[in-house]
Amino acid sequence: MDSKRLLSIFGVLLLIVFSFAIAPFLGNPYWSSVLIMIVINILLTSSLRTIFILDEVSLGQVGFTLIGAYVSALVVMELGLSFWAGLILGGVASAFIAMAVGYPFMKLKGIYFSILTLMTTEILRLIAYSWKPVTGGQYGLTGIPSPNPLTLPGIGEINFSSMNNYYYLALTIVLVCLFIMYIIEKSHLSRKWIAIKDADNLALSVGINVMKYKVLNFTIACFFAGLAGGLFAHYQGLLSAGATGRFGVMTTLNLVIYMVIGGKSKFSGPIIGTIAIMLLMEFARPLDNLRPMLVGAVAIIFVLLLPEGIAGLPVRLKSIGKKYVSGVLR
Amino acid sequence: MLFQVKNLVVRYEGAEILKGISLEMEEGEIITLIGNNGAGKTTALRAISGLKSPHSGEILFRGQRIDNLLPQDIVKRGISQVPEGRALFPHMSVSENIRISGFLRNDKQGIKEDLDRIYDSFPVLKERSAQRASTLSGGEQQMLAIAMALMARPTLLLLDEPSTGLSPKMVTEIGRVIYNIHKSGTSVLLVEQNANLALSLAQRGYAIETGKIVLSGFAGELKKSEHVKRAYLGQ
Amino acid sequence: MKLLQVQGMNKRFGGLKAVSDLHFDVDKGEIFGLIGPNGAGKSTTLNMIDGSLSMTGGKIFFKGHDISGLSPYKRAGLGIARVFQRDVLFDSFTVLENVLTGLHLNSNLGIKDALMPFSPGTRKKEQDLENKAMELLDFVRLSDRPGMMAVNLPHGDQRSLGLAIAMATNPDLYLLDEPLTGMNAEETSFMMETINKLRDNMGVTIVVVEHNMKAVIGLCDRAAVLDYGVKIAEGTPSEVTADERVIEAYLGTEQDVVSS
Amino acid sequence: METSLSFVLQAIANGLAMGGLYILVALGLTLILSIMGILQLAHGEIYMIGAYLVYYLTSSLGISLYIAILISMGAMGLIGLVLERGIFRPCKGDFLSVITVAIALTLILRSYAVAQFGLFERTVPKLASGSLVFFGVAVPKDRFVAMLIAAAMSVALYLFLKMTRYGQAMFACAQNPEGARLRGINPDLISPMAMMIGCALAAAGGAIAGSIWMLTPTMGTLPLVKGLIIIVIGGMGSLSGAIVAGIFLGLMDGIIPVFFGPVVTSIAPLVIVVLILLVKPQGLFGHG
């Protein structure tokens, strides 16, 4: 193992420790809730990038989050299943629906795929908004329980109704998900996705079942989007599907911004981008209503000047540095 | 000298498609550039028309460099191309296609006259003037493409494989059209894979292979050349 | 033995008949040419054999089985490999990774390997694939630069890589679409040598689409000539090139356009 | 009986007025999409800002409504020019970049509107007051004026595109950009024109909507979604398709709520679009 790799593993571990250690120091539930939303959104944005490996921009991730959120909440509330079962079932339901619609959906490309997913997410939201007997309609679902306390040997009972503890829970789950996604990214599966993106006709001609792998991609991405929904439901305790709410069009569009600012071609991109922009939104509180404007401006600057995003900065800086050094030496 | 290409090098994604070709023509000449698929013929025409900027080399028209100009400025100076695959506006009518090709001209009267003249020389286009361009047959589309290029009143007409995909009868027909255009005083640079057609029309010719000019001379000489016979005429 | 049988193949695009009632058979171990001028329907035919284009009518048999309705990846699985006309490669990958992707059918990487890409078992499987890929690169003389990005290869080498990707599927039938187009003399002779070597050493069957008559004469055992989607001649290269109709279709009519 | 007739007639009038607005938005969207290849997700925000500009001109400067609409159209046209040059053209057609920039623009314009005008609903003067009476049923006049304006602008756009050199050049660029270059048409000149026209039409739509209903900073989302629906149904790049689909959609939006709930009204067109995308992505009126 070369030293560079060792260094980056060490860096990642350090970041993980830091993200666990940070919560108690912040100390108040407000910051815990910010951190919770950050980790949930990291998972969502990463699922967006999973689809982007195929060079398709899904504007429908939030729709699948919604499925995960409602299913996860309902199985816990109505069937009395545990949080863990709810979380998994939410993800599975979302993945199942993605798989069911995957074949016709993944046949479309480019603008068509983006519009299709955008419309689908609106349809899902409107169904949730109006299906009163199940989703509570416009009043939504309330009283979604927090996860049951967990007893860990050596630590004792952990109560997740505290924001801080829920943050630890969400962080752990998201880290596990990210680890799985990273593994997939390094596996032959993602190599096939890239091959399909590069030349689907050539991929077919070497025997790759292109549609199967594309649908698999969509299914995996939507599974994680569904999990994010479950995490959200049990954190928030209530769900509603109003147009300007959590499941509205703007949320899905914001994810695209997180991904691009973070760096669309790197695994770390969506993670970095989500953290950076959501923290920016927090620290820019004094700007109040103008905060989205700031984010928009940052996004435009990145697209036009740093298309590889924050994750691409080291390479960019290196090349600038090299130019500078060679300029100085010359 | 009407037109001159000096040591033209064109690259696509790192690959050198044209490796320094040179050619020249006098006013009123009709010359041809023959070569197989992928030899670089289309690339040469794209560079001349300003669609692809060359890596190095010069293109001169009436002694002035045009290799750094935009396509519309090149059209303005009098070089008009009939591109490969005809490049029509498929959902516009035949007459709209012809009219819009005079985009850079401001003389309404002249445009109308040219339109009439084109309809005279291509009666089939007049017949189909209200039809969408996409509904024309291959030969008719080629006629339309030539008519469109003529609307710019070119001094030099560039033709990219006008015979592609046409029946032998239609090829003969197109050949006659090109001949008449040249007769009426327009200089023509004809790029062809069909060496037989090209060398019967042109006065002089160049043969291009993998981005290099390998042979040039009068059409009659080229026709007799062993190399051309083997490589292009299949004999 | 007939490896490939094309029976009554038809293709219509709107009103245009791109291929009409085409019949031909290819024997095992043959190099068969499909030739004709630009726009004659050669590539369309090839697309229907590999399944990327559906037929309007007709049947295709491969090793005696009707494959007419199968999708391209299934035909690849049965042993049909396509080498594309233009430089269609996996542009994000290195030379080696391109061939590794071509080895898809020969790999037994499953979902378990996707979830444990660093496990010794998976590593071993991937190492084996890499060795196989290197052998193939050796065959097309690219083993000296496996780490180079495929897009940065010179034109001729990109075609060789395309061939290596096809070889990786271990096919019985190769469909080569204009393999010599745009190549210089040296690259052409290397490609012709490689194609011959492929057939002689591995006993595979090859269908070549070419418009360049000279190349076909040197390469094929038999050839069919297409003009406007209709087969106008079939036979050995010398038979075909001597055919009146071929000469007319291919070279244009001899009448001088200027004097007529 | 009488009340239901009155409901239906009013619903049709409402639907046609809405259809007109949707058409104005959709024509711009489809023009921008077909000529520049840009999915302008911020088009609804241009519509919204255009409406607020009319509000500002009428309420603060006391300019009369129709003049204000014209000024707003001109101003948004100029903004379109700046946007095309400044942020869309540098994206060089990269799909994700274009989408990102458009989303960023949405954030910027919406947040500007909130900061400047607040979240309260605002109103601008009515296009016309009073009602017209049909079969004994009164239908507000402003609906008719809205329809007329939308129809007049659609016809004007159609004539411009069909009859003028630059209009034809736009079609040419949309169908075959490289062919257009070869005929001396510079797409870099035509693209900003498409953007300007699109933005001006959106501003007109916004202003009319504002005068019939209310102004809010989020008023652009609905027409954007409707515009996308229209260009999918009508076929991307087809103007006549957009007009037919716009009228159809407007009528659906007007009439369905009379018989069904608001949710069916919202979902029905979305479902239709998803089905069209899955079955015939080139749209019902699209080419080929």
Question: How do the helices and strands line up, and which of them pair or pack?
Answer:
The complex is a heterotetramer of chains A (330), B (235), C (260) and D (288).
Chain B: E1 3-12, E2 15-25, E3 30-34, H1 41-49, E4 56-61, E5 64-65, H2 71-77, E6 79-82, H3 94-100, H4 108-121, H5 123-127, H6 138-150, E7 156-160, H7 168-183, E8 187-192, H8 195-201, E9 204-209, E10 212-218, H9 219-224, H10 226-231
Parallel strand pairs in B: 3-8, 3-9, 6-7, 7-8
Antiparallel strand pairs in B: 1-2, 1-4, 4-5, 9-10
Chain C: E1 2-13, E2 16-27, E3 31-35, H1 42-50, E4 57-62, E5 65-66, H2 72-78, E6 80-83, H3 95-102, H4 111-115, H5 120-139, H6 155-168, E7 173-177, H7 185-202, E8 205-210, H8 213-219, E9 222-227, E10 230-235, H9 237-242, H10 244-251
Chain D: H1 2-36, H2 43-59, H3 65-88, H4 95-117, E1 131-134, E2 137-140, H5 141-163, H6 165-175, H7 177-182, H8 187-212, H9 221-234, H10 239-259, H11 262-279
What's a quick, concise take on this entry?
The complex is a heterotetramer of chains A (330), B (235), C (260) and D (288). Chain B is an alpha/beta fold and 235 residues long.
Unreliable residue stretches of chain D = none
Rg of chain D, nearest Å: 19 Å
Helix- and strand-based class of chain D?
mainly alpha
Proportion of strand residues of chain D: under 5%
Largest sheet of chain D: 2 strands, antiparallel
- Give the class of chain A from helix and strand content and strand pairing: mainly alpha
Q: Helical content of chain D, roughly?
A: over 70%
Largest interface: A-D, 45 and 42 residues
Q: Note the total helix count of chain A.
A: 14
Number of strands of chain D: 2
**Helix proportion range of chain A:** over 70%
Folded structure, characterized:
The complex is a heterotetramer of chains A (330), B (235), C (260) and D (288). Chain A has helices at 3-26, 29-52, 61-79, 83-107, 110-130, 132-135, 163-186, 188-198, 200-205, 210-236, 249-262, 268-283, 291-305, 313-329; strands at residues 150-152, 156-158. Helix content of chain A is 75%, strand content 2%. Chain A is globular, with a radius of gyration of 21 Å. Helix content of chain B is 38%, strand content 26%. In chain B, the strands form two sheets. Chain B has a six-stranded mixed sheet, sandwiched between helices. Chain B has a four-stranded antiparallel sheet with strand order 2-1-4-5, covered by helices on one side. Chain B has ten helices and ten strands. The mean pLDDT of chain B is 87. Chain B is globular and about 45 Å long. In chain B, a hairpin with a 2-residue loop joins strand 1 and strand 2 (15-25). With 260 residues, chain C is of the alpha/beta class. In chain C, 39% of the residues lie in helices and 25% in strands. Chain C contains ten helices and ten strands. The longest helix of chain C has 20 residues, at 120-139. Chain D has one domain (2-220). Helices cover 76% and strands 3% of the residues of chain D. In chain D, strands 1-2 form a two-stranded antiparallel sheet. In chain D, strand 1 (131-134) and strand 2 (137-140) form a beta hairpin. Chain D is globular, with a radius of gyration of 19 Å. The mean pLDDT of chain D is 87. The chains are: A mainly alpha (330), B alpha/beta (235), C alpha/beta (260), D mainly alpha (288). Chains in contact: A-C, A-D, B-C, B-D.
